[in-house]
Amino acid sequence: MPVHDFDKIQPQRITDLYRRKIAHGENMSVARVEAGQGSVTAAHRHSHEEVIILLKGSWRFQMPNHAVTLRPNQILTIPAGVEHSSVVLEDVLAIDVSGSKRTDWLTCADRELHDDPDQSLWGV
């Protein structure tokens, strides 16, 4: 069984405000995410469940019928297929767990979701 060490994994720099370090398992992916205040995430959905564990900062997620503001040591579970967007209220450090292997993270195919001419963040 492999051991992944976030201290040794090279970060993917998605934008000036967003970096992630990723560990892939056979059927799941885990990312250590650092995002700066003001970063936004465009509305999107996944075919897998996603879990966000906030370690530092403040991060507001807009769900279909309500908003959720995460604070340190809080966990948000987003079911598969549920549309969500977000804005970083204070610089965040988080763990993002995906219930399937994120090949879009592996290949950076999701980079176009992060491309923002205003240097905002498109991620999660």
How much helix, percentage-wise, in residues?
under 10%
Instruction: Label the structural class.
Output: mainly beta
CATH fold-level assignment? Jelly Rolls
Number of helices, where a helix is a run of at least 4 consecutive DSSP H or I residues: 2
CATH level 1 name: Mainly Beta
Beta-strand segment tally: 8
Strand content: over 45%
- First CA to last CA: what distance? 27 Å
What do we call the CATH homologous superfamily? Answer: Jelly Rolls
Summed up, the domain count is: 1
Mean pLDDT across the residues is 86
Q: What coarse outline follows from CA principal-axis ratios?
A: globular
- Spans of at least 5 consecutive residues whose pLDDT stays below 50 are 119-124
Give the structure's gist in a few sentences.
This protein has two helices and eight strands; from the N terminus they run ββββββββαα. The protein is mainly beta.
Q: Can you describe what's shown?
A:
The structure is a single chain. The protein has 124 residues and is mainly beta. The protein has helices at 103-107, 111-114; strands spanning 12-15, 18-24, 29-35, 40-44, 50-62, 67-70, 74-78, 84-98. Strands 1, 2, 3, 4, 5, 6, 7 and 8 form an eight-stranded antiparallel sheet that branches. A hairpin with a 4-residue loop joins strand 2 (18-24) and strand 3. The chain is globular, with a radius of gyration of 13 Å. Residues 119-124 have low confidence and may be disordered.
